[in-house]
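Sharing a chain and its predicted structure for anyone who wants a worked example. Both blocks are below, sequence first, tokens second.
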Amino acid sequence: MIVLKDVSLSLSVEEALTIGGLSRIADKIDNLGDLLDECVGLIRPAALYNYLKIERVIQEGVLVEDGKLLSSPRLAEELKCATEIAPYILTIGPDLERRVTETSHSRLLDSWILDNLGTYALRLLTRHLEERIKAEKGWEISRFSPGSTPSWELDQQEVIFSMFSKEKVQEAIGVCLTDQFVMIPKKSVSGIMGQTETVYHNCQECQKMCEYRQVPYREESPRKLPASVV
């Protein structure tokens, strides 16, 4: 298990305005720089990850070492040529989340902006980890997160956490998983990264109208795997 703490992230006002709905109200925000500084002072970016060998790809999902099954036909399709995956969990910590709650009682707009900036920071942290894994493995990386799309259920968070053990995750980066498979702090992400034939993104499966969309929706279904792969 590889643990990264106090990861340095370079947040900018210009890039922040591309996240969520901030661009729509840019002309009404005169304190974005101050809120960005506040955000930087509150986040504690941390991550952990590991590399696991794929033992077998089956129709129902991907079987990795130690007998753990990542149950998703989509994963089976996208990772059919991969030999290894990188499970990961990352977070920006609880302090910004607390400030968002506190601020919401008297400065609702600032609270909303801070929450969006937290999403921005989390996205940068994910990008940082992706670039690190790409440098270590030379992969053309695709990311998959349980619960982000209908093709990989939220309860698969349990499998991700079991790859490290819940106790070690909480001790290393302060993230815990509830019985409802929700991570605390909320600004946390779990999933796997792996090498795919073509780059995949969760957004391509999602039909929702979303301010955080990063790639267009693509209407398709996972194809049936050939018998040689199953």
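Comments welcome. The two ends are 29 Å apart (CA to CA).
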